[in-house]
Amino acid sequence: MSGAPLSSLSRSALHDRLVSPDGLRLHIGRFVTSIRSRHAQVAEGLATLYADYRLADDDRFCDYAVEVGRGDGLRKFVRPQSLFRFEGMQPFKPLPGDQAFAMLEWGLNWVFTNHAQHYLIIHAAVLERDGQGLILAAPPGSGKSTLCAGLALRGWRLLSDELAMVGLEDGLLLPLPRPVSLKNRSIDIVRALPGDPVIGPMAHDTAKGTVAHLKPPRTSVEEALTRVQPRWVVLPKFEAGSECAVQPMGRARMFMSLVSNAFNYPRLGVTGFQAMGRLVEACDGYTARYGSLDQIVPALESICSRPA
Amino acid sequence: MSLDSCWTLPHAPLVSILHWEDGCVLYDALKTSTTLLSPLAGQVIERLRDGAADTATLAALPDAPDTESLAALLDDLAEHGLIRRKD
């Protein structure tokens, strides 16, 4: 993964690449992704949050080429929109122009989820410590991203805030570190954490409320090709005012919980069943109900410090 | 239920099963369905993968309950299409 970091580009050079036919070509995990956009907010978000990502050489094969456009005709100039495009498809309805960076992030989630089919993909945050992987699998609203941000800012390596990508043959976790998506109150909670969090552009009044993203730690970006052995699966559930309760979970139940959070398990057939079985066999499972990061972070770090 | 009732596992070659202490998970490649089962139900399925068996044979499985509970389990599995009574 050679190439200078995006931070080596001046703002004008970044703009020029974003509007060029080939787009800004970045290494995101093991994928080369081309991004095109004339939205100033996209440039701002990339400069802030993707500063440590390596630029891909022009002759490198591009895995995914995406664009966040401004709309057609007068829309380009009057109340521009955010339109996500990928290989001629426009999978989402347009959003307001001031949600352009959030649209890029959501669009990239959609691209990786639907097109990286060589992996079992589970809706989960993934982190690593001492070479072992922690999978936080949960539906939206469970506090997964806030917890993920809290752990990443404490030195855990971020593999992903959204997608656990499990190799179908080796069973290892493939890193795809990207900015951590934060919503509403969690933005201020994470902003107040130690570890010098860097937060990108704010998108207000989205379908999810106010959305902003946390810059991934530089070391996580630099180690994005180092796969990880999965070791723990935790199903977190934030409940305001709740005491912290971490309970072991049986593997059969863990299996079904991961299936319910998997994106492409049905599509993979028996291969997905076998991959899920290997993942479950390799991990200890827990449910975790908690009322604050101060409770859950030490509880998880205690579990993850125990010898295998 | 008669102890003579005979049970089979439909399309057994397409069924995969994984066992753990808290239960087992069955994958049916024909239906592309995944089902969580109790450990005992997993034992029943595993036995039927080897071939048809009557209730009396299944009642001899290591963790088999009393005949009435076993019969209820077999009916339940049949109702969900996981096993079939052999006529």
Summarize the helices and strands and which ones pair or pack.
The complex is a heterodimer of chains A (308) and B (87).
Chain A lengths: L10 H9 L4 E5 L2 E7 L2 H10 L14 E6 L11 E6 L8 E2 L3 H16 L3 E11 L2 E6 L6 H9 L4 E4 L2 E5 L5 E2 L5 E4 L1 H7 L11 E4 L2 E6 L3 H5 L6 E10 L6 E5 L1 H10 L4 H4 L1 H13 L1 E7 L2 H11 L5
Parallel strand pairs in A: 2-3, 7-14, 14-16
Antiparallel strand pairs in A: 1-2, 3-4, 4-5, 6-7, 6-8, 6-9, 9-10, 11-13, 12-13, 15-16
Helix pairs in contact in A: 7-9
Chain B lengths: L5 E3 L6 E6 L2 E6 L4 E5 L1 H11 L3 E2 H4 L8 H13 L4 E3 L1
Antiparallel strand pairs in B: 1-5, 1-6, 2-3, 3-4
Walk me through the structure.
The complex is a heterodimer of chains A (308) and B (87). Chain A has 2 domains: 6-115, no CATH class; 119-303, no CATH class. Helix content of chain A is 31%, strand content 29%. Chain A contains 10 helices and 16 strands. In chain A, strands 6, 7, 8, 9, 10, 14, 15 and 16 form an 8-stranded mixed beta sheet that branches. In chain A, strand 9 and strand 10 (173-174) form a beta hairpin. In chain A, helix 7 (251-260) packs across helix 9. Chain B has 87 residues and is α+β, with helices and mostly antiparallel strands. Chain B has one domain (6-86): Outer Surface Protein A, domain 3 (Alpha-Beta Complex). Chain B has 3 helices and 6 strands. Chain B has a 3-stranded antiparallel beta sheet. In chain B, strands 2-3-4 form a 3-stranded antiparallel beta sheet, with helices on one face. The mean pLDDT of chain B is 92. The A-B interface holds A 250-253, 255-256, 259, 265-266, 269-270, 273-274, 277, 280 and B 16, 18, 20-25, 27, 29, 32, 34, 36.
- What gyration radius of chain A follows from the Cα positions, in whole Å? 19 Å
Count interface residues per chain for the largest interface: A-B, 15 and 13 residues
Strand order of the largest sheet of chain B: 5-1-6
As residue ranges, the low-confidence spans of chain A are none
What summary fits the major beta sheet of chain A?
Answer: 8 strands, mixed
Low-confidence blocks of residues of chain B: none
Rounded to the nearest angstrom, the radius of gyration of chain B is 12 Å
Shape summary of chain B: globular
Q: Which structural class fits the helix and strand makeup of chain B?
A: alpha+beta
Q: Based on helices, strands and strand pairing, what is the structural class of chain A?
A: alpha+beta
CATH topology-level name of chain B: Outer Surface Protein A, domain 3
In terms of DSSP E residues, the strand content of chain B is 25-35%
Mean pLDDT over the residues of chain B: 92
- Range of helix content of chain B: 25-40%
- Taking all residues together, what is the mean pLDDT of chain A? 94
* Number of separate helices of chain A: 10
Q: What oligomeric state best describes the polypeptide chains here? A: heterodimer
Please give the count of helices of chain B: 3
What is the total tally of β strands of chain B?
6
